[in-house]
Automatic annotation (TrEMBL):
<dbReference type="InterPro" id="IPR010255">
    <property type="entry name" value="Haem_peroxidase_sf"/>
</dbReference>
<keyword id="KW-0964">Secreted</keyword>
<dbReference type="GO" id="GO:0004601">
    <property type="term" value="F:peroxidase activity"/>
</dbReference>
<dbReference type="GO" id="GO:0046872">
    <property type="term" value="F:metal ion binding"/>
</dbReference>
<dbReference type="GO" id="GO:0005576">
    <property type="term" value="C:extracellular region"/>
</dbReference>
<dbReference type="Pfam" id="PF03098">
    <property type="entry name" value="An_peroxidase"/>
</dbReference>
<dbReference type="GO" id="GO:0020037">
    <property type="term" value="F:heme binding"/>
</dbReference>
<protein>
    <submittedName>
        <fullName>Peroxidasin-like</fullName>
    </submittedName>
</protein>
<keyword id="KW-0349">Heme</keyword>
<feature type="compositionally biased region" description="Basic and acidic residues">
    <location>
        <begin position="142"/>
        <end position="155"/>
    </location>
</feature>
<dbReference type="InterPro" id="IPR037120">
    <property type="entry name" value="Haem_peroxidase_sf_animal"/>
</dbReference>
<dbReference type="InterPro" id="IPR019791">
    <property type="entry name" value="Haem_peroxidase_animal"/>
</dbReference>
<feature type="region of interest" description="Disordered">
    <location>
        <begin position="129"/>
        <end position="163"/>
    </location>
</feature>
<keyword id="KW-0408">Iron</keyword>
<keyword id="KW-0479">Metal-binding</keyword>
<keyword id="KW-0732">Signal</keyword>
<feature type="binding site" description="axial binding residue">
    <location>
        <position position="434"/>
    </location>
    <ligand>
        <name>heme b</name>
    </ligand>
</feature>
């Protein structure tokens, strides 16, 4: 076995090179690390593997071609997106090194900054809030600079609303359930997305214009890009405001690019910024100011009340608006529920940490609890949720599986890995959950049409917030909707409806991709090394036929979102191979580009988690969080599914009596 390990190390060192960095053989790269981890994992399970078979292993031989063709951080395994045609572009994207804060103080800082700065000590703004989104491929604007893809093109691209009606329309019998996954998979995914991405939209004056008024319809340069089409001789218009451009000189990371880029207002890290806020001021506003607790209402059962203007849905009678670290908390009651879960979990853990360490100040308790919950969320995301989304093959291929207990020293953080959100991820691939949105919610035994409770969280106040267990019960005992081309009519026709007008969510996604200049589906299939073929074999035959008809037979015109969302699911996952590639790419960056990653034991002793603390973190599941927050209810939960993201009548259940987290490793640890 040791001889085999030596052969693997030597083979990889011979193959891994970075000529643009003037390093011929560089072992300490994420590429080398992931490859070695994958090979060693195989050696544990395939004792008969010979040295020669390892030398012939295709993934290893691809390294020399892939890694020598690039000059920046990339992926090491098949499906990597940094190929030689894009290396100059990728260099530009990651050059946001100028004018960031000096981080000399942060090397031994125990806590993250609220805005994500100084996580990377070399490139202090990587992954920080209010920075440019990265790209897997250079944009394809119609004028090469800013005009949306397809704008004023001859022949024109099909209108997004037409694509939506022909591809995404469904009826109740066609919107199939996913009998393997529960609705918690969808709800947690939305919550996680709001921790990672938010792209602001506005016109030049910072206001959202009425884009369907005649005076604004053709003002693309100033922010309006409405969806127009003619139906039976009548023009139809749907509101759409372009994403705000990231412009010089306020954006030093622009790198001198001459094309439009978009901003991510949030930190890219999995740090629960949606709960605590992505700035110091918002973070302080969420604190109760005593005992390290977060602000709540209804004696700790509900989120604090916020500005009612932030959840105006155009209907009368909406009197309750929640306040959270992210302003989208009121979009749907299940999202507000998820926020409430984490705020209540924070307060439960803070109280226990204060009892364990009575000498800690309120601020110390708050920061320690935030640090702990961020780590638990990272573990749940990668250990429970993400495998259900992209499947075991992509988890292993991109080095995303949690390390076994005691082997955390094998984790390596790379300051060359830029975790900034990929435009393709935020604008297309991570919107897969839109296909999972259910037609209704059942809360407290009352059935609500989904479009009737958008921007209305008042149902969470029933019985003064004492009935939240019913939301958890609904999410864990209801199958998710299958990720495919079928979208509920409420999402396609009545999204955020005011009067007789609503929005079309999948059409908005297509328009947003064009607004951002995302290249077409075929370009990303090539980047991920997934041949399409004339028959589009990753799609069901009827879907491939429909897509070809919509786009006039030109596969190269198909937009990224409709092409990716309609692929067959990968084995063990819910998304197709292209979205799996993009999502895995992003989560690899988030894992290996986060200095505060919970498994990183190579930090100073006052910064890293101890091995006992990591063991306690890894014992946590989302089920155990639910047990913890409902323990004080008049009727506490007795048992929960071992994995709430799975849906099965035969799923293993665990007793809540055995679900308390061991916090002893935190006694006097600071």
């Amino acid at each position: 076995m040791e001889a085999l390990r030596s052969d693997v190390n030597n083979l990889l060192k011979d193959d891994v090179c970075f000529p643009q960095q003037q390093v011929v053989c560089k072992e300490e790269t994420i590429d080398f690390h992931v490859a070695r981890q994958s090979v060693f994992a195989s050696l544990h399970t395939q004792s008969s593997t010979s040295r020669e078979s390892i030398r012939r292993w295709g993934v290893l031989r691809e390294f020399s071609q892939q890694l020598c063709d690039m000059n920046t951080f990339t992926l090491a395994t098949p499906g990597s997106f940094a190929q030689s045609p894009y290396r100059d572009h990728l260099n530009n994207i990651v050059c946001n090194r100028k004018e960031g804060p000096n981080c000399h103080w942060a090397r031994s800082a125990r806590y993250r900054t609220a805005d994500g700065t100084c996580n990377n000590l070399v490139n202090s703004r990587w992954g920080a809030a209010n920075t440019v989104q990265r790209r897997m491929s250079p944009p394809q604007y119609q004028d090469d600079h800013s005009m949306p893809r397809g704008h004023d093109r001859d022949p024109p691209l099909p209108p997004p609303r037409e694509i939506s009606e022909r591809l995404f329309a469904s009826d109740e019998t066609e919107t199939a359930d996913d009998d393997s996954n529960s609705l918690f998979l969808w709800s947690f995914g939305q919550f996680l997305d709001h921790d990672l991405t938010f792209t602001p939209t506005m016109d030049e004056e910072g206001k959202i214009p009425p884009c369907c008024e005649d005076s604004h319809k053709n003002h693309i340069e100033t922010g309006c890009f409405p969806m127009l089409r003619t139906v039976d001789g009548t023009e139809e218009c749907m509101q759409f405001v372009r994403s705000a451009p990231a412009e010089e000189p306020s954006r030093p990371e622009a790198c001198g690019k001459d094309y439009r880029e978009q901003i991510n207002e949030l930190t890219s890290y999995i740090d629960l910024g949606n709960v605590y806020g992505n700035s110091y001021l918002v973070s302080k506003a969420m604190e109760a100011g005593v005992y390290g607790l977060m602000r709540t209402s209804n004696e700790g059962r509900s989120l604090p009340r916020g500005n009612p203007n932030h959840c105006d849905n155009g209907r009368d009678g909406v009197s309750y608006c929640q306040l959270a670290g992210d302003k989208r908390v009121n979009e749907v009651p299940t999202l507000g529920f998820m926020h409430t879960v984490f705020v209540r979990f924070h307060n439960a853990m803070a109280k226990k940490l204060k009892i364990l360490n009575p000498h800690w100040t309120s601020n110390t308790v708050y920061l320690e609890t935030r640090r702990l919950l961020g780590a638990i969320t990272q573990h749940i995301t990668y250990n429970e949720w993400l495998p259900r989304v992209i499947g075991p093959q992509y988890m292993a291929q991109y080095g995303l599986n949690s390390l076994p207990l005691g082997l955390e020293s094998y984790y390596s953080y790379y300051d060359t890995a830029d975790p900034s959100i990929l435009n393709e991820f935020s604008t297309a691939a991570f919107r897969f959950g839109h296909s999972q949105i259910p037609p209704f919610l059942v809360l407290n035994d009352i059935k609500y049409n989904i479009d009737d409770v958008l921007m209305d969280s008042s149902v969470l106040l029933d019985n003064d917030g004492r009935d939240l267990q019913s939301v958890a019960s609904f999410l864990m005992n209801t199958p998710a909707k299958r990720v495919d081309r079928n979208f509920e009519e409420a999402i396609r026709e009545r999204l955020f409806k005011t009067g007789d007008k609503g929005l079309d969510l999948p059409a908005l996604n297509i328009q947003r991709g064009r607004d951002h200049g995302l290249p077409p589906y075929a370009k990303y299939k090539s980047i991920c090394r997934q041949p399409i073929g004339p028959d589009m074999h990753d799609h069901p035959e009827d879907v491939a036929r429909t897509l070809k008809e919509i786009y006039g037979g030109n596969i190269d015109d198909i937009d990224l979102f409709p092409g990716g969302i309609s692929e067959r699911s990968v084995e063990g996952g819910v998304v197709g191979p292209l979205f799996a590639c993009i999502i895995a790419s992003q989560f690899q960056l988030l894992k290996y580009g986060d200095r505060y990653w919970y498994e990183n034991t190579r930090l100073p002793s006052n910064v890293r988690f101890s091995y006992d603390q990591i063991a306690s973190i890894k014992s946590m599941t989302f089920s155990r969080i639910l047990c913890e927050i409902f323990a004080g209810d008049s009727k506490p939960m007795n048992d929960v599914p071992q994995n709430v993201f799975l849906f099965s009548s035969n799923t293993t259940r665990t007793s809540c009596a055995d679900s308390r987290m061991n916090l002893q490793p935190w006694k006097d640890s600071y």
